[in-house]
Design a protein that fits this description.
alpha/beta, Aminopeptidase, Alpha-Beta Plaits, 2 domains, 6-stranded mixed sheet, 5-stranded antiparallel sheet, 19% strand, elongated, binds zinc ion
């Protein structure tokens, strides 16, 4: 309904009939009517304190930030359902947390934790984790510490098929893991770190992978956030202030919003293929001169013999070449397109600088709600997440 309200005048009927005729009510439900469900998992609780600092316990910091994050989402996102694995100080077995998310048929799983190291007592900063094989001993140590909570469960050896959280050999199971949600999880993790660094002004220790049991058993994109180090007195004090908890909850919230917007933009571009089919016979506005109407757009200039990655903003899709003055461009000049199968995908702007294109996308977001960043190499569309990773690597050299 939201989508239809956004369209003007006689468009309403076309879009509606188009969608109605071309996809079944069930598919309609799947894409639009279904609420976005996010499970927020405050790590530890009850008899399991998590890491323990000088003045506080990890379980309490995690819960405070988790509830603040949930409050923000509930208050501002009418279409999102928030499910907590715990909203008070209780012990929840690790596999039960994943089960809660799976039973809720969640779209996203966010586990919130606080880091700790034996020494030095000066290490600071945030990090976000996705499921995978730890590439370093330090990364493995984080997974070991977080997984060791299963030892609070008396029957953990049978419950977790002989998994020993302390033994490096146990982690071999993560080596061959096929995670179909990997790219979405990594995308969200990157957004969380971007906001921790930019919006929250906290230390950025980056996005990492390791074998977290709680992420292994969730059937949806998921991340594990480490808010900071309880083992470092200065950071522990910060994490225990109201301002600190608010700031970090806000960072995750902003990343969540960005992520959800991107995901929905991708669904929206699938939908627009359907309503395009019905829309096409519509006449162009009569007041425009004929020669202008017949002037079709030129396809995007292919990038000649360079393997530089170019980012663009995709604004809409259509089943045919649109005219330069098509109403759907909302007055935007210099729109490009590329062809993907039978579909024409329209883009705006082009730069090797991802941040520039991101700015463009933000600028266009008012007129093109579903706009999102796409990437090209040698004139061909490539995976945007991989392109962003490459861009960052190059920039950090
Ligand atoms: Zn933890």
């Amino acid at each position: 309904m939201f989508l239809i309200m956004k369209l003007d005048g006689h468009y309403i009927l076309y879009a509606f009939i188009g969608i109605w005729l071309f996809i079944s009510p069930m598919a309609f439900n799947t894409v639009w009517a279904k609420d976005f469900i996010v499970v927020i998992d405050a790590g530890h609780g009850g008899k399991d304190p998590g890491a323990v600092g000088k003045i506080s316990k990890e379980k309490d910091i995690n819960l405070k930030v988790a509830l603040k994050l949930g409050d923000r989402i509930k208050k501002n996102c009418q279409d999102v359902k928030v499910v907590y694995t715990r909203d008070k100080d209780v012990f929840i077995p690790l596999d039960r947390r994943a089960q809660i998310a799976n039973e809720a048929k969640a779209d996203l799983f966010i586990s919130i934790h606080t880091n700790s190291v034996a020494s030095p007592k000066t290490v600071k900063g945030t990090s976000t984790w996705t499921l995978g094989l730890a590439r370093s001993d330090a990364n493995l140590a984080v997974a070991k510490r977080e997984n060791s909570v299963i030892m609070y469960e008396g029957d953990y050896q049978t419950r977790y098929a002989g998994f020993n959280p302390d033994s490096s050999e146990s982690y071999i199971i993560f080596e061959f893991i096929q995670d179909q949600y990997m790219s979405q999880s990594v995308r969200l993790a990157s957004l969380v770190q971007q906001h921790f660094k930019g919006t929250c002004k906290r230390g950025d220790r980056g996005v990492h992978q390791a074998g977290f049991l709680v992420l292994k058993n969730t059937a949806m994109p998921g991340i594990l956030v480490e808010l900071g180090f309880i083992s470092t007195p200065e950071e522990e004090r910060y994490l225990n202030t109201e301002a600190g908890a608010n700031n970090l909850a806000n960072g995750i919230y902003c990343a969540f919003l960005n992520y959800k917007e991107e995901q929905q933009a991708q669904s929206a571009s699938i939908i627009s293929v359907f309503d395009e089919v019905k829309e096409q016979p519509k006449e162009q506005p009569k007041e425009l001169p004929k020669e202008q109407l017949k002037e079709p757009l030129k396809p995007s200039t292919p990038v000649v013999a360079t393997n530089e990655i170019i980012f663009k903003v995709q604004i809409l899709t259509a089943s045919s070449v649109l005219n330069k003055n098509d109403k759907r461009f909302k007055g935007l000049k210099d729109v490009d397109y590329y062809k993907d199968g039978k579909i024409y995908k329209y883009t705006y702007g082009a730069s090797a600088d991802y941040n520039e294109v991101l700015k463009t996308r933000r600028r266009l977001a008012g007129n093109f709600k579903g706009a999102f960043v796409v990437a090209f190499k040698n004139g061909k569309r490539i995976d945007t997440n991989k392109a962003i990773e490459e861009f960052k690597k190059k920039r950090n050299k």
